[in-house]
Amino acid sequence: MAGFTSGEGSFRVNIRKATTKSGYGVPVSFVLTQHSRDSKLLRSFESYFDCGKYYPGDGNQAGRGDYIIQNLQDITEKLIPFFDQYSIYGNKLLDYQDFSEVVKLKNHGAHLTPEGLEKIRVIQQRMNQSRGWVKPEPAVTVTSSEELSSKGIHQRRHQPVAIKNIVSGQTNSFSSIAAASRYLAGIGVKASGHTISKYLLNGQLFQNYKFYNNENKS
Fold this sequence. Notes:
Blueprint: H1 2-8, E1 9-13, E2 16-17, E3 24-25, E4 28-35, H2 39-49, E5 53-56, E6 64-69, H3 72-85, H4 91-107, H5 114-130, H6 145-149, H7 153-156, E7 161-165, E8 171-174, H8 177-186, H9 193-202, E9 209-213
Antiparallel strand pairs: 1-4, 2-3, 4-6, 5-6, 7-8, 7-9
């Protein structure tokens, strides 16, 4: 598990609006992605950790799958003790250390105060900007609603899409709407492909996210 995570694991921290004292929630999640041929291995982690869930890819992502843990108690009591014992290597170790710090802050209720939330925001930005699973803003090309409306819902589900978090200002780019939907599920945000297509078309905000058509597939 530690070896796979060093290569294809993601420790994710999200900040979104919620009915809390600070006005924001901080869902955290762990995502391990592997080729579909390794689906049995990913599914075995469900029983090994007695938590999390395997999500097979679809559409353009049919050749891969994700094992995701997003329950805070499971992350605290099962995932973190595991990685504390079996160390990750490289830059991913720094991500894990930051992730672990955010989990600790959440468990102490720091995310419910403006000061604690700001501390978490600083950690989140350090993880996402300097260690690599978030693409920079210039990669996004915005397509007008008229252009989007000329395409069918089914076709749009397989188009490249970018998601901008208007709170942190960070943007993630994905090869398909299906991949974007899986990413959001991994950080505790429920948004089906149909929902993402709808908000792509009307240009409105979904919670604290803005969706863009991303024509740049590089």
